[in-house]
Q: What sequence folds into this?
């Protein structure tokens, strides 16, 4: 049963508005799962649309296209500024790359929005294992989450203020960091938006609502 909001502030935050970067990537999946996690999910393509957002999601897709489109649509700098100013933001896969301060194996001139003090390696898992899935432990969850990796990055180095939420737990890549959080920013190498469950989106919606 839902609690009845007791003030206008509670009413607003009972269902936070979460924008999804909608110039490229698997936007629809995020919109759907954010709604199921209790948020009011909206597509964002223009800088003005950022104003309504209590939180923001950068989907999976292709980071080398995303940054160019963000530049073309003049979303890059306003979004970067919002993230610096504390807009809670969640990046999945290419979105993780977009949030990383440093990228290994990016294209020449590749830019990121930054904000997360991490170094990611693009397409880190190699060609043989381009895409794979498996169950992994996730910080604070009793049950494992199903993680789908598609030409995914991993986190190669983390700054002091960055917490690890998940690592790969088997195979050659065992121990590699695949989910992190730093303050109001979080990122996963995998795609919780295609894994079926909405627990990780709920985790993010909670972060938007409570932090
Ligand atoms: N390899 C892609 C990139 O570099 C990410 C793939 C994904 O988001 N599934 O941006």
A:
């Amino acid at each position: 049963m839902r609690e009845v909001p007791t003030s206008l502030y509670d009413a607003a935050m009972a269902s936070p508005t979460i924008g999804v970067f909608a110039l490229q990537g698997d936007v629809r999946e995020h919109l759907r799962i954010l709604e199921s996690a209790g948020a009011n999910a909206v597509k964002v393509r223009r800088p003005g649309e950022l104003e309504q957002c209590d939180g923001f999601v950068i989907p999976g897709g292709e980071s080398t296209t995303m940054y160019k489109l963000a530049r073309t649509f003049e979303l890059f700098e306003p979004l970067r500024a919002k993230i610096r100013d504390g807009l809670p933001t969640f990046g999945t896969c290419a979105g993780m790359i977009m949030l990383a301060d440093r990228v290994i194996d990016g294209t020449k001139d590749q830019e990121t929005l930054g904000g997360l003090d991490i170094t990611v390696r693009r397409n880190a898992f190699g060609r043989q294992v381009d895409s794979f899935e498996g169950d992994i432990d996730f910080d604070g969850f009793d049950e494992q989450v199903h993680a789908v990796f598609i030409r995914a990055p991993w986190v190669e180095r983390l700054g002091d203020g960055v917490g690890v939420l998940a690592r790969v737990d088997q195979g050659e890549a065992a121990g590699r960091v695949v989910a992190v959080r730093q303050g109001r920013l979080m990122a996963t190498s995998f795609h919780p938006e295609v894994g079926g469950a909405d627990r990780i989106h709920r985790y993010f919606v909670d972060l938007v609502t409570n932090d």
Observations:
- Residues 6-210 form a domain with the Rossmann fold fold (CATH 3.40.50.880).
